[in-house]
Specification:
The protein is of the alpha/beta class and 405 residues long. It has 13 helices and 15 strands. The site of nicotinamide-adenine-dinucleotide has 24 residues, from helix 1.
Length: 405
Amino acid sequence: MKPVRLIILGYGIRGRTYAAYALAHPDEYTLVGAADPSLDGPPQPGVRFWTGWEEALDADIAADAAVVSLPDRLHCAACSAALGKGLHVLLEKPLGCTWAECETIRAAQRKSGRLVLAGYVLRYSPFYKRLKNIVGSGCIGEIVSISHLAAVSYGKAAHSYCRGNWSVESEGTGMLVNKCTHDFDLISWWMESRACVKIASFGSLFHWRAVNRPDGAAARCQDCPAQVRSGCPFDAKKLYLDEDCLRYHFAERSDVAISRMIETSRYGRCVYACGNDSVDHQTVLMEYDGGPTVTLEMESFSKERGRTTHFFGSRGEILADGRTIEIRPFSGENRTIEPDGTMLHHGGGDCAIMSSFANFINTASPSLANDLFDSSLESHRLAFLAEESRKTGRTISVQPPVWPL
Ligand SMILES: NC(=O)c1ccc[n+]([C@@H]2O[C@H](COP(=O)([O-])OP(=O)(O)OC[C@H]3O[C@@H](n4cnc5c(N)ncnc54)[C@H](O)[C@@H]3O)[C@@H](O)[C@H]2O)c1
């Protein structure tokens, strides 16, 4: 297998994660270029760099593939342009910010015949691969219903969906499309041959609103009176310095750099004064053909971050929480399985998707590339329809997609 010559468009958290994999696996990849306005030199000797993705693609560098890990609003243009240059693309989710953008990418994918692999890293992780095998084995009979919770955690949700990149819907995709296209993807995978026929959704911005701002709270955490700050779990110092679990979001992670970031950036703002309008909780109800039902709950206000899924089958139950899988057949003993794998980097999915991407590039036929991309669009279609239901208050009948010839 020849190493894939790779360029990375958007060298932020995701871009750096994929670059680290490429650099550590020279048998699979050669990192030939990276584009990001924050780069002031090559990320690695011998790697070309540019400040913008357009420049990178205009440079006509010899490359086979691109990772598009740019802000959401640039995905459609950058992915379509990369396909136009004949590159295969690993495209971060959300694929497009609207369904129309997804269709534009599909048209570019069809024209180029290249692969577009969606960044649904979870389905590549050892945990979810094992779970898929178990669910598919029929050990709990037919799936009657699934209850799936995506618990985002109060800190991560405050970071991304109240203070951060996805806090204002019109600037990106809002919380459900950004966060839960992973979950819609897993659900579509588990439901396999069945199609979603009805979808309804409810949700709102419940808590992070001006009306809930404590008396005396300042616009920025560092200016907030101590007695208000001490009672606030969303205080930026608590989240970024004391608890430490969000530091990975930043390229510079020393205490000094994080303190400066809290004082100067959007991440030091009071959560009740961010001008955010993205929901903070949302429930989606789905009916599949033949009658099985699925509920998906996305929740900001959980202490821990993670996904839990409860499958109810005609012959038993399965409970999965990202670490363990408990099988509870109606006849026979319960069994608990702990698949190997790290909890880091999406349970190992970040590395596994890169390995699969190289494999697909070397082996996939154009028809497989088409099928792969079309199946990855299903998750976005459902997420956009759920948003339509939430905004209109209607239950939506889901029709098969109609693609242009
Ligand atoms: N698959 C997953 O599980 C997963 C997880 C997190 C984020 N994401 C997605 O990955 C994408 C990137 O997220 P991130 O967390 O790495 O964000 P990030 O902000 O850390 O990275 C985005 C990078 O793009 C750069 N950029 C902006 N404009 C550019 C331009 N014109 N040309 C080149 N670079 C430009 C920014 O400087 C930044 O470094 C987002 O779309 C996000 O939704 C996916």
